[in-house]
Amino acid sequence: MTAAKRVSILAGTLARLDREAPHYKKDGYNDFNTFYMQAASGTKGGSSGSPVVDCQGRAVALNAGSKSSSASAFFLPLERVVRALNLIRDCWDAFGIKSESVYIPRGTLQMTFQHKGFEETRRLGLRNETEQMVRLVSPAGETGMLVVDSVVICLY
């Protein structure tokens, strides 16, 4: 006898598209240098990996986790998942390498970044000329810039 699977579809409104990666455990793995989508939704434990769809029914992200204390859910944008899957597929096609041994590279500058609004970056010392140049070449509606939060030191 098999257990019946429950399917639920929850409505939610995206509050932010540039949310820093959530911190789940003090000494555990926490993602960094990528943005998540944040929404107020009723997702619960066990929802991780579920698709997030837009009003046209297109998958745009995967449920990555939630905070029950604030009813906030965090979604990993789908383009990051697609990139990883393409790297795995390309290695398999080219070399016949088993997927569990494929390395998925992540660029790193040995530092972590945070997204700060333009008002905050001006308080941190951003010159007016630099802000104007960034606004000129950025997509419409850009709200800020990345700033260095911490430098990662690797001891070998």
UniProtKB/TrEMBL annotation:
It holds the Pfam family Trypsin_2. This is Serine protease. It comes from Triticum turgidum subsp. durum (Durum wheat).
